[in-house]
Automatic annotation (TrEMBL):
Domain ABM residues, every copy: 2-90
PANTHER family listed in its UniProt record: HEME OXYGENASE (STAPHYLOBILIN-PRODUCING) 1, SIGNAL TRANSDUCTION PROTEIN TRAP
Name of the protein in question: Antibiotic biosynthesis monooxygenase
GO MF term list: monooxygenase activity
Keywords of this entry: Monooxygenase, Oxidoreductase
Keyword Lipid metabolism attributed: no
InterPro entries assigned: ABM_dom, Dimeric_a/b-barrel, Heme-degrading_MO
Domain of life: Bacteria
Amino acid sequence: MYVVDSTVVVPDHKADELIQIYRNRSRLVDQADGFISFQLLQNDRKPGELTVHLEWASKQDYLNWARSEQFKKIHELEKQYPDQELQGIVPKVSKYEVVAE
């Protein structure tokens, strides 16, 4: 299994707005080959720190998704957020190979 986490830090007062965006996400990734799950995590001590946690069957499945037209479409939509504070946020991305369960 392969895990990709994308963490962003937004002002605390913007956290709920970003959570709503993810609750209403397009779900295009859900149909990608090898996709297992999506979770949006909120740090319980820092409400403005949110992490998108994606699980994939393999690294290759993730790479195929990351090179797809659907991936590009989703990330173009992110650039069009009406809220300027959310529009320019760059996530810290971490990628992991699961080595034991």
